[in-house]
């Protein structure tokens, strides 16, 4: 294992950096088997505009381990990314999501779906062509697929990443920049990446209504994105006040538990059908007791 000294010189064990513990190797093998057996599921979380129209649904991977129960995506995505399993996981997610989009379209539900892709995918030779082939196989137009990337795609080989992204947008796939504001955010990245949407990370959105600095950051991000012609989605909207602030700041769409958490396919279908052309209606806030 990898030991590291903290600032006081005390040795600390960093499980996150340790990619070869029996635990991680065990999980990796289990994940590979779960993918082969089709035991990994996708749940879908809506992105809605302020008029209630459904802008799309984001596919989020869900894995229930037979002994450990739910494993958080952040945990097994990191393992897949550092082990070479990532391309396989992404193929699985794309395949499952596109099959779902095709089923929804067959029922008249023409809603775009967003799939998260990792930096590893963007550096896999032939990725753009493989996505285009998969779209064609499912009879899904490229405009019905969005891919969410993070700025990390530019860290390793920016030229190759740029080529892949140009290939994808050339086929008509829409790109979205996820988790904006965390890590390496810079204006250079925004200029270099052919994205049409920017998602403000939940860490800024969560305290928007109570923290004036976060509110200022969100306001500037929205203005910057708009001046570059991008749509802005806020992640992690949990309450009415945050919704109202974002609407007043000119944000385009929101995602979060206020609207809906990620839902299994049948529940997402029912959710879409229930909204129909009416869109999502924000529940009326409870009246103060004094009234
Ligand atoms: P992300 O793409 O930024 O997804 C947003 C995360 O925030 C999701 O967590 C979602 O369930 C959660 N979330 C949504 N609304 C709220 C809210 O109102 N409050 C709070 N507290 N959380 C909310 P999840 O599903 O655990 O996924 C975590 C991350 O794992 C994702 O972050 C994404 O980076 C990654 N991930 C998930 N599915 C996939 C996938 O299929 N492929 C890849 N490469 N990464 C994935
Ligand atoms: Mg995402
Ligand atoms: Mg995100
Ligand atoms: Mg996030």
Automatic annotation (TrEMBL):
GO MF, one annotated term: cyclic-guanylate-specific phosphodiesterase activity
Domain EAL: 24-276
Keyword Cell membrane attached: no
UniProt entry keywords in alphabetical sequence: Membrane, Transmembrane, Transmembrane helix
Name of the protein: Bifunctional diguanylate cyclase/phosphodiesterase
Taxonomic source organism: Streptomyces liliifuscus
Shown part of the complete sequence: 471 to 761 of 767
């Amino acid at each position: 294992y990898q030991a590291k000294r903290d600032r006081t010189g005390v040795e600390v064990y960093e499980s996150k950096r340790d990619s070869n513990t029996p635990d991680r190797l065990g999980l990796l093998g289990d994940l590979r088997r779960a993918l082969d057996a089709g035991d990994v599921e996708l749940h879908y979380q809506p992105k809605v505009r302020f008029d209630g129209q459904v802008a799309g649904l984001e596919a989020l991977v869900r894995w229930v381990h037979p002994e450990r129960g739910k494993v958080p995506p952040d945990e097994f995505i990191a393992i897949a990314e550092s082990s070479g399993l990532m391309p396989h996981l992404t193929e699985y997610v794309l395949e499952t999501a596109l099959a779902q989009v095709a089923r929804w379209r067959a029922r008249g539900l023409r809603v775009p779906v967003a799939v998260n892709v990792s930096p590893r995918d963007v550096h896999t030779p032939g990725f753009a062509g493989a996505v285009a082939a998969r779209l064609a196989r499912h009879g899904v137009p490229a405009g019905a697929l969005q891919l969410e990337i993070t700025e990390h795609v530019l860290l390793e080989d920016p030229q190759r990443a740029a080529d892949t992204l140009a290939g994808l947008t050339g086929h008509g796939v829409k790109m979205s920049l996820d988790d904006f504001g965390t890590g390496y955010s810079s204006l250079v990245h925004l200029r270099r990446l052919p994205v049409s949407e920017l998602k403000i990370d939940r860490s800024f959105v969560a305290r928007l209504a109570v923290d004036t600095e976060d509110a200022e950051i969100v306001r500037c991000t929205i203005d910057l994105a708009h001046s570059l012609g991008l749509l802005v989605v806020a992640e992690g909207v949990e309450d009415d006040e945050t919704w109202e602030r974002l609407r007043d700041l000119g944000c385009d769409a929101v995602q979060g538990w206020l609207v809906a958490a990620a839902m299994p396919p049948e529940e997402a279908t029912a959710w879409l059908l229930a909204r129909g052309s009416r869109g999502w209606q924000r529940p009326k806030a409870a009246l103060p007791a004094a009234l």
